[in-house]
Amino acid sequence: MHKSNILIVDDEVNIRQSLKMTLLNNNYTNVFLAKEASEALNILCERKIDLALFDIKLGAEDSKNYVDGIQLFQKMKQEDLGTTVVFMSGNASSSDAARTIKEGAYDFLEKPISVEKLLVTIDKALENRNTIKQINKLKKLFDDEYSGIPLIGEDKNFIKIKQTIMQVAPTDSTILIQGESGTGKELLAQMIHQNSYRKNSAFVKVNCSAIPETLVESEFFGYVKGAFTGAYTNKSGFFEEANHGTIFLDEIGDMSLQAQSKLLRCLNNQEIQKIGSNASIKIDVRVIAATHRDLQKMVEEKTFREDLFYRINVIPIISPPLRERRDDIAALFTFFTKNFSKKYGLNDKEISADVINILKRYPWPGNVRELKNIVERMVILSQNIIDIGDIPQDIYQRATEKIRDQENSIGEENLTSEKDSNNNGNNTLKQTLKSFKDASERKFLINILKQANGNITLAAKVLDIERSLLHRKITQFAIKKNEYF
After folding, report:
1. 50: helix, strand or coil
2. Distance CA 251, CA 176 (A)
3. Of the residues 115, 161, 292, 369, which has the maximum number of CB atoms within 10 A of its CB?
């Protein structure tokens, strides 16, 4: 059974009915008919027509409102309706046929049309249309922030998420992905779509937080020409664009209650109605929603509709923050390093184990997105080896603070005696160094001094030791000033 919408435009009723019966008998179930241009335009505007068969001659040329098939095609292109068109005629000249192809039609059929020729042409036209849609979709995906990023991670909880995705992807169940910003919720949604039977249809992303409440209805459901001031053309909404595919409603928790109500009605009825039109359009869309908010709490606070929450929360997936899957940092860092090296035409870079050890201690408030941005910076600014000195100073400071907090090596009060400060300073320094398996104490101190631009006071503050102790360490390891300043 073919789900494509096909429109037949011919002024002869017998031809219209004959073509329709031929298509119905060959499993094309959605066939629409029109006898003149105005009727055809109304159908094209209200329905998402995939393929249209236009007769070149439509009625008597001396009639007042005569519009032939080519003129209809030109009007359709002006409206940017995106329908593939095949022309047909029983008395057109060769120049007419050539003109239709020049105008952008897929093909031209001469009447009487054999059933075999008709079906082959339609099949090829629809196949060509799907190929073009796929190419456009791939181009769009290439530009996406997470384009090409696989589900990297061997953390036990993340493995469970990957297993869940493979289980739910082949179904049509509605999915709610919850998690902090930057954890890759969109990536999870894309992976679900790519592993579903809808993968060859559209994946439409909607940032719900970016749509003003007054525009929700027109953006989600579209409108027809003349529906309101400024509606100069017909517009498809997000749901119509996603028909037979997947719609990803990102940050759904940021929608107003009024907008939630309109969305719920659409989801419950599986149909949309464009602004300015009385016709309801059935849709076949898989819904994946995402949010960084606690929707259950919002339901309790009456800021999110309870019925909508249960409608979208059929399969819940929690996207974990990066700080809860620190063992995946090395694999993610390596992946991003290779990608950015290739992107900027740089040689593959080695990664110091010290770098990974430090970054595992950082809290990652921006999650995977923050890691990706930091790796890009380090790849561009580093030499052949990405080392401790390439870590941004603010990242490094927070990471070492985390180490000291975790090991309870820093007291609440400032140390006043030289003896106490030396002892505690040595303990802090030794404990810090133990965190870096392959780093020498000398190398570690040089990198700290480099990041402090040779400022002994600042370096001692980062290490949480007295300046006198740092001076002794510099002397002990024979660190030259030109090594760090």
Report:
1. coil
2. 11
3. 161
